[in-house]
Structure formats: structure tokens, C-alpha cells
Amino acid sequence: MEEDMWLVSLDVESLYTSIQHKDGMRAVRMFLTMSNYDVGLSNFLMSLLGFALEHNYFLFKNTVYLQKQGTAMGAAFAPSYANLFLGAWERQIFFTNPIADIEKVLFWARFIDDVLMIWQGTEEELLSFVSLLNTNEINVRLTCKRSQTQIEFLDILIRKGESNVLETDVYRKETAVNSLLHASSSHPLNQW
Questions:
Q1: What is the distance between the alpha carbons of residues 19 and 49, in angstroms, rounded to a whole number?
Q2: What is the rounded CA–CA span in Å between residue 132 and residue 175?
Q3: Backbone torsions φ then ψ of 71, nearest 5 degrees
Q4: What is the largest CA-CA distance in the chain?
């Protein structure tokens, strides 16, 4: 790591509930087309996805609601759907229509809605870049943590060590606790 490099952690705010159906469907269609699936199978999968998105009902305080935007976090397809949606967004910002200062991104790795990035430039340029990322029509909003010495990313602490070489360690959030169910608890066996 050089002196003007930043360790950056980006987090997409409320990803699952903020994906507009039309944008998510467009992203899935793009990747199905790129994968050379049979047109009939692709259309069938898109119909299933559309049905699941448009018929997501939930109960809250004895009232039934229809979720009109996003997907339920507990839906089996939700992580894949969110990944494809952000994958399409990444392709646009890096390849299709690269945004300003993209060459200052030396490293970009994403796990669902969390991004680890190495930035080479000033803090002001970094904040301007994140502001550009947040200026979009698909409802993606990022929070940004940055440091020139260390950053937490998921369960990893990444820091500059001796000779500016990156080192890693296990990171535990302050709220992490080792809570175990007592054998005499009334929880079902599958939750032990």
C-alpha cells in the first residue's frame, strides 16, 4: 500500500427492499441472455421471478400487505437476485459507461451488498466518487467507511502492517456474543 491509498468499505443500504422490480428483472434477463440459456427456459424463469416479486404478501399486526418494491429477505432467490442486480450495476459503472475516477479504484470485491475497495487518490476524490455512485436511477445508496490504516470488512480486520503490506485478522463486532441454548430450553430440536 502506498501513502495515498485508502482502504474502503462500502455497504448498500437496504438492498433487498430497494430493488425496483423492473430494474431487477432487467438485470436477471441480461445475465440469462449472456449465459445462452434456451429462450423458452429464460422466459419461464422470468415468469416465475415476476410472479414471486409481484405476489409477495406479508402479515404485520393482523394486516396483510403486498410488497410493491424489492424482495423479501427470506425468499430463497433473494441473494441471487440481489447479486445479479448489483452485478449489472457494477458492469455499467466499470465497463459499459465508466464513471469519473474509476481508474483510481485499484481493487473492488463484493459480497452481496458489502464492497471492499482500495482507492488511490485523495479523500475528497474518494467522497466525490462515492457521491457519483450514489447518483443513479436504480435506487442504490452506499454508505462509506474509509481509513489509510485499517478497515473492517465482514468478519475481517484489514490493516497496513510493516512495510505497508496488508495484514488480516478476525474481526468481531461489539454486538457479537456467544449465546447458546440451554438443553432444557423449550426451543425445537432443529434450533439447537
A1: 13
A2: 32
A3: -135, 155
A4: 60
Is the separation of the CB atoms in 108 and 141 below 8 Å?
no
The Cα–Cα gap between 113 and 70 comes to 14
The three cell numbers locating residue 136: 443513479
pTM given for the model: 0.84
**Tens digits of per-residue pLDDT, 4-40?**
999 999 999 999 999 999 999 999 999 999 998 899 9
**pLDDT tens sequence across 42-62:** 999 999 999 999 999 988 999
**C-alpha cell belonging to residue 153:** 470488512
Q: What is the CA radius of gyration of the chain?
A: 20
C-alpha dihedral sign at 82, 83, 89, 92:
negative
Q: How far apart are CA 138 and CA 69, in angstroms?
A: 12
